[in-house]
């Protein structure tokens, strides 16, 4: 009797597995990229679309909480032209996203701009004043995983190099080690079949929570939401119950575990099976894996999500 043919591994899953190495490579780029990155004290706006916007949110909170300077994050389409900034940083994997290109084209030429991108042969190279190319983190997948976290790893490592990380936030080397754990361990029990998941974060991890929820919606079509952790009791707890989960990226606020248990929800609180806390970026890697597993359990192809393309190009051509 022949053995069953193993299921093919999705391209998305392969790319997810490379994240620890990508983060280390990004950290090694910091000395060469430093001139293009925000300087201490600059007023900075960070922009992107979708996943890149959520990475912008995480970086903005890290930078400002670390005392590096005022930092705002915007969806590229919502950038407040006319507001004064010393630098604009744009995150765009494809380098072709219309809203990002339009923003850079309209930007006051006196404002320095930097783009982090995966593809050097794209229009963003001409529109941004400086670029940092993370081509080793580029992806074939429609759904972003490793490029997004690698861009954040570069920005976080730059803050680390200038002793500007907030208290309690570790360096990229430890985050990468935690990501290796996140790739090796079993997914939290009950999460693949959960009927609904609320992702929570606080400070810089709220952007990660936003991204976690988006990944599950994109890849698996799951019912997921995201909130600042302290806002969860102000309404969202109403949807939690048996068969539904709450996943906290970062430190769980006091008393919240009891509240979730009281309504019968499953709590995932940023640690592996040995209850050793994971770096929040590494915990996001677990969500990436969960998105693939949930997609496959639902009969979906995580490499070909419904209604999505790799880059949103409006009007038929970039910009």
TrEMBL record:
InterPro entries: GlmS/AgaS_SIS, GlmS/FrlB_SIS, SIS_dom, SIS_dom_sf
Keywords, alphabetical: Repeat
Keyword Disulfide bond: no
Top-level lineage group: Bacteria
Species this protein is from: Kitasatospora indigofera
SUPFAM superfamilies: SIS domain (SSF53697)
Protein name per Swiss-Prot or TrEMBL: SIS domain-containing protein
Domain SIS, chain residue ranges per copy: 34-169
Record-level GO BP terms: carbohydrate derivative metabolic process
């Amino acid at each position: 009797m022949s053995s069953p043919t193993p299921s093919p591994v999705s391209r998305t899953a392969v790319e997810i597995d490379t994240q620890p190495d990508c983060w280390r490579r990004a950290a090694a780029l910091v000395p060469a990229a430093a001139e293009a990155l925000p300087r201490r004290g600059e007023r900075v706006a960070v922009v992107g679309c979708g996943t890149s916007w959520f990475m912008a949110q995480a970086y903005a909170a890290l930078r400002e909480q670390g005392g590096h300077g005022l930092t705002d994050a915007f969806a590229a389409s919502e950038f407040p032209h006319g507001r004064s900034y010393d630098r604009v940083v744009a995150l765009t994997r494809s380098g072709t996203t219309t809203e990002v290109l339009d923003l850079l084209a309209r930007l006051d030429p006196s404002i320095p701009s930097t783009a982090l991108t995966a593809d050097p042969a794209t229009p963003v190279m001409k529109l941004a004043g400086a670029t940092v190319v993370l081509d080793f983190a580029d992806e074939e997948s429609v759904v972003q995983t490793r490029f997004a976290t690698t861009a954040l790893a570069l920005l976080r490592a730059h803050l680390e190099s200038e002793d500007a990380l907030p208290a309690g936030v570790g360096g990229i080397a430890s985050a990468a080690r935690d990501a290796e754990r996140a790739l090796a361990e079993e997914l939290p029990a009950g999460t693949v079949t959960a009927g609904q998941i609320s992702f929570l974060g606080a400070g810089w991890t709220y952007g990660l929570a936003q991204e976690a929820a988006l990944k599950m919606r994109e890849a698996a079509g799951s019912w997921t939401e995201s909130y600042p952790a302290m806002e969860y009791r102000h309404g969202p707890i109403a949807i939690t119950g048996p068969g539904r989960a709450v996943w906290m990226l970062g430190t769980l606020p006091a008393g919240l575990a009891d509240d979730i248990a009281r309504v019968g929800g499953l709590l995932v609180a940023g640690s592996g099976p040995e209850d050793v806390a994971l770096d929040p970026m590494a915990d996001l890697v677990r969500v990436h894996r969960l998105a693939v597993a949930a997609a496959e359990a639902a009969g979906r192809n995580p490499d070909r999500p419904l209604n999505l393309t790799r880059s949103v190009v409006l009007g038929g051509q970039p910009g």
